[in-house]
Design the sequence.
């Protein structure tokens, strides 16, 4: 375990500013950011002051203590014991001299995202009536938004591995191939190339299913003339990649060409606009203009990109949290371009998605990958 | 899409009994149970009466309507539009003549499990102040608990595929092998054998890391004399498997043998007790006696098994929801035996986990797999 004391100190300084007595970490991304390693069930308490405390199973205590000489391990043998221990610890922290409050109330932060289930939050509120549970995202996101050089290297490596998977997928796109086979082989290639896992399943959609907003593994085999979308999300040391490509098997119909050309033009138009100070709303306006020029504006979907890092979608996650549409980008943030499908209902859809670093002269691709949609049928 | 109208009718009858005006489905398992198919973002409204309504992206409408002649599709083009549409629909349902209430209040059910994030529930409560959000689990779990013959066949097939993965993993356990390689090859074998995906990553722990409660992919290679745990969770049509085995590489030390023998005896003692009417608390008492006989009772962890079906852990999920320890099992439920690790801190841990059907004459394994821990080193 490579505890990031520098980051923990910055989190604690921010906690004291905003009046958080503790942050309870229950998610992979914040845990990895602070402890330099993941756990299957990541659980930790970051107090407003003093060493961080990892919450772990009793059988793991000797190894954790050896790996964490300057931290603390709070062990449990059952879920009931774990809950009581955390309640007691938070009560102690609230009572500690100098404990921060906000509007006169002791507050505890917790990430509010897909990994934080409502039933655990409801339980937390019930057993900790004397503290107010608030989102820790404003504290953590503000620190995690801009990536340092090490983080950019890992994000680039993950994106490179996505390219390995895409090469493998593309080579398999032949008439009659099953989407499940393409997905399996692409995943295997990425894992062998060093991916730890993927953020989502590998999505491979064929034909009319390219219209789907989120993708899946199509049940029907690939047919000549079909569109195909492959969407890959490998992770390296928790850092996420996102590479999506659309292919057409055989001679493209004019409408295929129109759709694919439009999307390629969207990416080319948005990339130079991915600069510090821009917002997703502004990038969407650029994309909309391109769609309008091709007479496809009625099919245009907002949310051309999203933040990406230790979480597959992070600030600005504009298609999940509408106010994120107006977050001003900062230099060194990492963003995708190409998130939403451009789908003509009943016909098919397209997208080309890559990860870029936000820079003064526009988005810089972390690992360029060709856009070459036509596959000889 | 193979809409299960019989199941939907049973859900609606139960909703009217308990006073739910609607269930909002946002999870894979209930969606699959009711619609016979999964979606990457499963979203549906089950009203207290009338056809079910799938919530989907506008580009997907033509295909969904074709697949769902007797259902309804509510389309959205943005997350804001989706939220407003659902708020309006729930308001209409509440105003509908004959709309059920409970304690004079209109109530809407939603699954309360790991897939239901707190931030969406908080948003739901804010935008729907006139309805009370309650758990839909009592309705859904009561119907889903006992598996029919088709479900048992799929669960058995998933468990058979886990065996394919375990064969592959076992064959690779040689000195110096990386856990990541074992995990990658086992996953690949399961996907090629027909698994759709896995419920969790493939966990492969070596040496001292076999003490971990949840497993992971160990960073260090396998050394002679090491214990190794492989934990596999493939899915077939959404139905989950769970197969865990512990191996020892080379001549086992007496303490290894003691640990492995104890766990095998736990499974053998609990299996005949997995009968209708039993509770996990009772099964745990059986396991505890075995541990005590071997002088390992101080390391015994409660929660010997959990329900399994379309969700990897379902009722009784005794290590997550303490009251589930006292749920009475019913004939035809499917349960694992072998969930918790028996870990001697600083030494190592063991478990053998399989899936069983609860029956009058004790647990019947869905796909028997050998317990043969010793691998010639």
Sequence:
């Amino acid at each position: 375990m490579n505890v990031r004391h520098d980051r923990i100190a910055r989190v604690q300084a921010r906690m004291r500013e905003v009046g958080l007595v503790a942050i309870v970490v229950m998610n992979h991304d914040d845990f990895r950011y602070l402890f330099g390693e993941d756990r299957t069930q990541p659980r930790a308490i970051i107090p407003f002051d003093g060493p961080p405390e990892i919450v772990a199973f009793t059988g793991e205590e000797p190894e954790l203590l050896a790996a964490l000489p300057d931290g603390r391990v709070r062990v449990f043998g059952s879920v009931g014991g774990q809950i009581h221990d955390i309640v007691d610890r938070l009560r102690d922290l609230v009572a500690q001299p100098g404990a921060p409050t906000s509007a006169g109330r002791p507050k505890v932060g917790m990430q509010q995202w897909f990994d934080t289930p409502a039933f655990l939050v409801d339980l937390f509120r019930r057993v900790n009536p004397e503290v107010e549970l608030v989102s820790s995202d404003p504290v953590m996101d503000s620190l995690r938004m801009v990536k340092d050089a090490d983080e950019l290297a890992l994000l680039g490596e993950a994106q490179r591995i996505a390219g390995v998977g895409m090469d493998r997928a593309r080579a398999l796109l032949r008439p009659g191939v099953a989407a499940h086979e393409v997905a399996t082989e692409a995943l295997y290639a990425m894992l062998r190339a060093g991916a730890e896992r993927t953020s989502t399943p590998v999505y491979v959609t064929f034909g009319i299913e390219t219209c789907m907003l989120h993708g899946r593994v199509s049940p029907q085999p690939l047919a000549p003339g079909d569109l195909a979308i492959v969407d890959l999300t490998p992770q390296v040391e928790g850092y996420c990649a996102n590479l999506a490509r659309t292919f057409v098997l055989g001679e493209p119909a004019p409408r295929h060409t129109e759709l694919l050309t439009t999307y390629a033009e969207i990416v080319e138009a948005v990339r130079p606009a991915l600069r510090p100070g821009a917002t997703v709303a502004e990038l969407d306006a650029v994309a909309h203009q391109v769609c309008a020029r091709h007479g496809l504006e009625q099919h245009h979907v907002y949310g051309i990109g999203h933040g990406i890092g230790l979480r597959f979608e992070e600030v600005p996650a504009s298609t999940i949290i509408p106010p994120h549409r107006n977050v001003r980008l900062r230099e060194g943030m990492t963003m995708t371009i190409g998130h939403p499908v451009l789908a003509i209902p009943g016909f098919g859809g397209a997208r080309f998605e890559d990860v870029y670093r936000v820079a003064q002269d526009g988005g810089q691709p972390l690992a360029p990958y060709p856009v070459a949609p036509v596959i000889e049928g």
In short: Chain A has a mean pLDDT of 96. Residues 149-172 of chain A form the longest helix (24 residues). The longest strand of chain A covers residues 243-249. Chain A has ten helices and 18 strands.
